[in-house]
Amino acid sequence: MIRSMTGYARAVADNGIYQAVVELRSVNGKHLDLFIRLPKERLDLDEVVREALRKKLRRGRVDCYVTIEPLVSSLRAARIHFQTARAYWDVLYQLHLRLPGSDPPKLEHLLKLPGIWETDTTLPEAEEVRHLVAEATEQALNNLLEARAVEGHALSRDILQSLRELQQDRVLVEERSQVIAEELQGKLHAKMQEIMAALQGTVDENRLLQELAYQLDRTAINEELVRLKSHLDQMIGWITAEEAVEGRRLDFMAQELLREVNTIGSKTSDLIVTQAVVRMKNAIGKIKEQIQNIE
Q1: Which of 15, 20, 190, 286 has the fewest CB within 10 Å, making it most exposed?
Q2: What pLDDT is stored for residue 215 in this prediction?
Q3: Where exactly are the transmembrane stretches of this chain (predicted)?
Q4: Alpha-carbon distances, residue 248 vs 56, 100, 215 (angstroms)
């Protein structure tokens, strides 16, 4: 099973008087980078949220937005700060008296001035808010993990499709390699007979046989094909397992796939094998691109 690093989640927890809202947005990242935004009067909750995120997330850039809002209308409603309003009005009226021909101040002018409106700044108990934020964070995290799992399932389908294409081309190369080996052996044997006939037995036959074996071994790709099959089986097993696999492990194995395919391509110039190598490289490229989004 794999989990994507991309996801969004939101959760709300309330006690009937206040509510805590937690939003999580996550994208790709090499490491776990947490960016938490809290109300300025509740910065002490940073460690509560950060610790909860660290327990369940391993990689990715995660932006967390926490808001704490009152639910009771008396706490939400704005009120006029009469002392400030009175001071503003006195200044406006004195300005009107000193500016002949100016219109007298109006209420609509007063209500637009800063500091006129105020809200209840009474904060709930710290422990109460801590509990609400912790609850909302836990819910948001679970929702985020579900969203990441859904995205990961889609990634799994794409990667498995590419791995099956690789398996098909690996089988094709394996079958073709046997034909190539037989053809090369026949050509080298004929060449050896030609050399021995030209030199009329003055050349060491054992030395020629050693050279023949060396040339056959140099172009053999059996070991690469065996390792390639092993890597493919491992990756398919990791992706289809119940336990989540790390993106770093898959990325390393994709590098190994590419290394084996490159070696196969360098050992033969057969057209059919070369075409299969190009297809396998393209498939591995797609896999590596998808792996970058895996946690």
Answers
A1: 190
A2: 57
A3: none
A4: 17, 77, 38
Phi-psi region of 60 (alpha: psi -120 to 50; beta: other; left: phi over 0): left
Q: What is the pLDDT of residue 121?
A: 52
The pair of three-digit structure tokens given for residue 267, joined into one six-digit string? 């050992």
Of residues 45 and 199, the one with the higher pLDDT is 45
Residue 214 clears pLDDT 60, i.e. is over it: no
| Structure tokens that stand for 195 in this block | 């050399």
Contacts from 117-120 at CB under 8 Å and sequence distance 24+?
117/78, 117/79, 117/80, 117/81, 118/78, 118/79, 118/80, 118/81, 119/75, 119/76, 119/77, 119/78, 119/79, 120/70, 120/74, 120/75
Task: Tell me what pLDDT residue 183 has.
Answer: 62
Cα dihedral 22, 27, 32, 38 sign:
negative
Burial code of 123-161, b = ≥16 C-beta within 10 A, e = fewer? Answer: ebeeeebbebbbbbbbbbbebbbebbeebbeebbeebee
Between CA 5 and CA 80 the distance in angstroms is: 47
| Identity at 45, one-letter amino acid code | L
The Cα–Cα gap between 96 and 246 comes to 72
Tokens 């009120």 sit on residue? 79
Instruction: Find the range with the poorest average confidence among 47-56, 79-88, 90-99.
Output: 79-88
Q: What is the mean pLDDT of residues 84-92?
A: 85
Domains and CATH numbers, the chain: 7-74+125-150 (3.30.230.70), 78-118 (no CATH), 153-291 (no CATH)
Average pLDDT over all residues of the chain: 83
pLDDT, position 134: 93
Give me the pLDDT at residue 73, please.
59
